[in-house]
TrEMBL record:
Protein name as it appears in the record: ADP-dependent (S)-NAD(P)H-hydrate dehydratase
UniProt catalytic activity: (6S)-NADPHX + ADP = AMP + phosphate + NADPH + H(+); (6R)-NADPHX = (6S)-NADPHX; (6R)-NADHX = (6S)-NADHX; (6S)-NADHX + ADP = AMP + phosphate + NADH + H(+)
Pfam families: Carb_kinase, YjeF_N
EC supergroup of this enzyme: lyase
Positions with a binding annotation for (6S)-NADPHX: 260, 313, 365, 428
Gene3D superfamilies in alphabetical order: 3.40.1190.20, YjeF N-terminal domain
Domain YjeF C-terminal, residue spans: 225-508
Highest taxon, organism lineage: Bacteria
Names of the cofactor(s): Mg(2+); K(+)
Annotated PROSITE patterns: YJEF_C_2, YJEF_C_3, YJEF_N
């Protein structure tokens, strides 16, 4: 599990760190980390380090200072280094002196008519380009000169701290911005690494220890790693029987639309052993597809369950309303999706059926969220947190980065790093998976994080056929250099995602086993 801290909290921790350790020492640590990851990328993409060329794009502040110091260290490894200075009169002085003393070159980016031809040549020559334009103090998109310079970059980019042009606190991009292959950040992750467009533009995020950790407060939110999901995933123990592992009730689909029932129930079956019960008009179809499921026609006829998954395909009319009300009255943990969210958003009386002490998870996409909250989410973490608190629910806001907020303010984010789950029926599978984890007794916030992570990975495995990597490096963190990120994929349907769930579970469980060795 990794923490994510807002820029303000990072700065406050840095101030405390500087009382104990001199700032240049800290910067040198940061630069060491940048140089290490530039060397790795050179090895990967240029076949070696010595004799290769690195171009530094350097802005006005300490972010550029980090890049210059890293350049000086790379010179020591036989790398040719050229710094292109976007603001020569405000360049980090010590960093520039260090680079020149190590034999690096520096030139001004701007001539009398925009970017000079020397600067363009340097940007085109780099085997790797280091983005030291702007870091934690970034405001808005790249300024025109920096944007023009970035436009000439064809080589892979290592971003210092964050890809320039991305808002550090939100991950939003409001103008031109850098797209990095690797982002090297310091002390702790920032929201831009895992949220919105910033997550995609950060590429592989590498965290460097600069001694900041003891000075950090509680993170603003957290990110689960595959090994966290693997460690929490329920598997049967020798004492278990089919009931003791948690029974899930599924209320989904209809006679004319049995697909939602099939996918929700299937998500549950593939997630954990034990038992799944189905209640609804698609009972015959469900029995046929999933003979292991005990299927009945109505919620009232279903035997005991430890949790319910309700909503996909139940409709928003009186039948759907009745099903949802019956499920809520049972006072068991519930995951409510799709039509159930629409019903809850427009019918305040339905909330009376609910026991406020029993966990209720709502899993909206942005449109369903707008029905609940009155508007589409802008700052997704803040919006999910506020809505979770207001309704007293766990709010799982789906998106490329999925945000899960608990009513007590805790938040988990999962940056999927790809969009393969964006296919019809995929949400139904997630609902079944999450329901089964709740039935198995996994703590609700963690259950949400685990289900989202494994669901996203299953989609990726289905699309890319990459299961053979057996425990791919996580996008955020990890030492292994990514390979699967460049795997070419093919579009999938939700059935293919569902079929890949066991492979994804095996992968996270293998990651958990490896991490305790
Ligand atoms: N506080 C510290 O001493 C440490 C800072 N570190 C580095 O320092 C960075 C923060 O440095 P600074 O606070 O000096 O500021 P930055 O280097 O992030 O920004 C410098 C200046 O760029 C300008 N700017 C803002 N938005 C811009 C945009 N969109 N396009 C172009 N220019 C823009 C502003 O004038 C800003 O003051 C971190 O991101 C990290 O890389 C690390 O060395 C670790 C320790
Ligand atoms: K940067």
């Amino acid at each position: 599990m990794r923490g994510v801290w807002t820029p303000d909290r990072i700065r406050a921790a840095e101030e405390r760190l500087f009382e104990a350790v001199a700032e240049p020492v800290v910067m040198r640590r940061a630069a060491n980390g940048v140089a290490l990851h530039v060397r790795r990328l050179l090895g990967e993409r240029a076949g070696g380090v010595a004799g290769r060329h690195v171009t530094l794009l350097v802005g006005a502040g300490n972010n550029g200072g980090d890049a210059l110091w890293a350049g000086a260290l790379l010179r020591g490894r036989g790398v040719g280094v050229t710094a292109v200075l976007l603001a020569p009169d405000r360049t980090h002085g010590e960093g520039l002196r260090a680079l020149r003393a190590a034999g690096g070159r520096a030139l001004a980016a701007e001539g009398s008519s925009g970017l000079t031809s020397e600067a363009v040549g340097a940007l085109r020559r780099g085997d790797v380009v280091v983005d030291g334009v702007v870091g934690l103090s970034a405001r808005g998109g790249l300024r025109p000169l920096a944007a023009e310079a970035v436009g000439h970059v064809g080589a892979p980019v290592v971003a210092v701290d964050l890809p320039s042009g991305v808002d550090p606190a939100t991950g939003l991009v409001e103008g031109p911005a850098v797209s990095a292959e690797v982002t090297v950040t310091f002390g702790g992750l920032k929201p831009c690494h895992v949220l919105e467009e910033g997550a995609a533009r950060s590429g592989r995020v590498r965290l460097v220890d600069i001694g900041l950790i003891p000075y950090l407060d509680e993170p603003d939110f957290t990110v689960l790693d595959p090994e966290d999901a693997g460690a929490a995933w329920p598997v049967p123990s020798p004492e278990d029987d089919k009931y003791s592992q948690g029974v899930l009730g599924v209320a989904a689909g209809s006679a004319s639309f049995p697909g939602a029932a099939m996918l929700t129930a299937g998500g549950a079956v593939r997630t954990a052993s034990g038992m799944v019960r189905y209640a609804g008009p698609a009972a015959d179809a469900v029995r046929e597809s999933w003979p292991e499921i005990v299927a009945t026609g109505s919620v009232g006829d279903t035997g005991r369950v430890q949790a319910w998954a309700v909503g996909p395909g139940i409709g928003t009319g009186s039948n759907g309303r009745e099903v949802l009300a019956r499920v809520l009255e049972e006072a068991r943990p519930v995951v409510a999706d799709a039509d159930a969210i629409t019903l809850l958003a427009r019918d305040a009386a339905l909330w009376d059926a609910r026991d406020p002490e029993t966990p209720l998870v709502l899993t909206p996409h942005d449109g369903e969220f707008a029905r609940l909250a009155g508007e589409r989410p802008e700052d997704r973490v803040a919006a999910a947190r506020e809505t979770a608190r207001r309704y007293g629910v766990l709010l799982l806001l789906k998106g490329n980065s999925t945000v899960v907020a608990a009513p007590d303010g805790r938040v988990l984010v999962h940056p999927s790093g790809h969009a393969w789950p964006a296919t019809a029926g995929s949400g139904d599978v997630l609902t079944g998976m999450l329901g089964k984890l709740l039935a198995a007794g996994v703590e609700p916030l963690r259950a949400c994080g685990c289900a989202v992570l494994v669901h996203a990975r299953a989609a990726e495995i289905a699309a890319t056929g990459s299961a053979e990597h057996g425990g791919r490096a996580p996008r955020v963190g990890g030492d292994e250099e990514g390979r699967a990120e460049r795997t070419v994929g093919a579009p999938i349907g939700a059935s293919a995602l569902l079929a890949a769930v066991p492979a994804a579970i095996r992968e996270v469980r293998a990651a958990a086993t490896a991490s305790v060795r």
